[in-house]
Each structure stands twice: as C-alpha cells, then as structure tokens.
What we know:
Blueprint: H1 23-33, H2 44-51, H3 55-67, E1 71-74, E2 79-82, H4 87-96, H5 98-114, E3 117-124, E4 127-135, E5 149-151, H6 156-164, H7 167-180, H8 183-203, E6 206-209, E7 216-224, E8 231-239, H9 245-263
Antiparallel strand pairs: 1-2, 3-4, 3-8, 4-5, 6-7, 7-8
Helix pairs in contact: 1-3, 2-3, 6-8
Amino acid sequence: MNRDVADFHDGAADPTGDRRFVTALARGFEILRAFRPGGGALGNQELSAATGIPKATVSRLTHTLEGLGYLRHLKAEGKYEPTEAILALGYSVISNLVVRQVAHDPMMELALQHDVSVGLASRDRLSLIFVDVCKSRLLSTLHLDVGSRVPMATTAVGRAFLAGVTEDERAFFFERFEERLEAEEWADLKPRLEDAIAQVNARGYCYVEDEWHRGMRAVATPLVAADGSAVMSMMCGAPAFRVEREKLEQELGPRLAHLCEGLAPSLR
C-alpha cells in the first residue's frame, strides 16, 4: 500500500468513532487522489494497491465515478483516467482564494526579474500543494505548476509551513514523519527540520538545497493569517547553476519574507 495515499492518519480526517463520517464518500475521493500528474491511467488492481481499498470495492467506485463523469474508462487498456470535470472541483477554490489574487502580480514580478520560480502553497496531508506558480520561461528544468505536490519534510516550502504552524500542530507532523521513516532516517531528518524552523524564527525564511531534487536551491517563508487561523507558505527557487546561494539568502529570502508579511491580512 502506498502510505502517501489513503492513510487517514497522515493528517487527513480520522474516521474512528465518527458516526457522521461517510466512508464510501471518503473512498471515492481516495480513488481520485490516486491519480498523479504524469502517472497515466490506472486499472482497478493498481488503484487497489495504491489506496489499500479492496479491489471489489474499487470496481464499484470506479464504475460510479465513471457514471458521474469524473473518470473515463479506457476499454482497450482496461484502465481509468480522470476527466476534465474534476477541474471544476478545484477551480472554485482557486478562483475564490483572495490571497492568491493579491499575491500573483508581485510573485510574477519577482520570478521574471530574477529568473526564478515563485510558488504559493497550501498543506495537503503530508505534502504541500501549489495554488499558484510564477516562473521565468528560462526555467524548463523546474517542473512546478498549479496542483503540483511536493513533500513537506524535504522542501523549503514544506519546512517554512512547519515553521508557521503551532507547536502542537508541528508535533503532530513530526510524529507522522517518525512513523513513516526508519529510525536512522528520522534521526538524520529531524535536525534539518529543526534547523529550518530556527532559520525562519531568526530571519523570516529558510534555505534548502539538494534535498527534494539534487541541484535545486530554494528559500521559503511561512504565510500566516493575522489571527493565526490559516497557514500557507511561499517559495522562491531555481537550479543551482541559475541562482547563487548568496543571492537567495541575502536578497530573495528577505524579499519573500517581506512579501508574505504584507499578504497576511489577505489570508483567511
């Protein structure tokens, strides 16, 4: 079973003891979440393996989702792929996200002026999902777009998010990471997470290099609502051959932190 998918204990809702929780509905969404950008079509057996849902149940769910227009059945392959109808589910969120509307122009200005990618992201379980990405046309090697998901633990944007949440929330995420990693892996990762959080506390942003993708450098800062009710994060990055660490840390990081400070009233 893919532990990044269909695990209710990875920060998604926990149905244990909740009589109002509709498991069938949750499983339907797990099927849709199993499809990844560039991953291609999936058959019922593959969906069952990815979600941990029994194949017989998966067959009923894919049949239902096809009937609703959210999946397309490729009969020649015996597999399914998402349809364009799914876009409608996310478009209403994107179009009504005030902070995205306010942030887009300054993000684009920063991206074009310095030939970097600038992304605004929100939490998606143990990942961050980008709700806006602005980038220079020169950055063909950094494949980020709206809807791209990146790991929380090994990216600058993810670590900035961790720095922005409360201590209790951070402890929850740390517990999830520890559950999923071998003891040696967690012992190696935890100090790096703590260092990134310390960087944010000291200067407003953190720097990460060579962790999510080798040769990539990025700075990121948390974006926290004025009342603390919501947390997002913003990153600025590029391949190492396009941007110097000194520039990221001394110029772009402070600009990013200043930008997010100004955007805080727009986040709710």
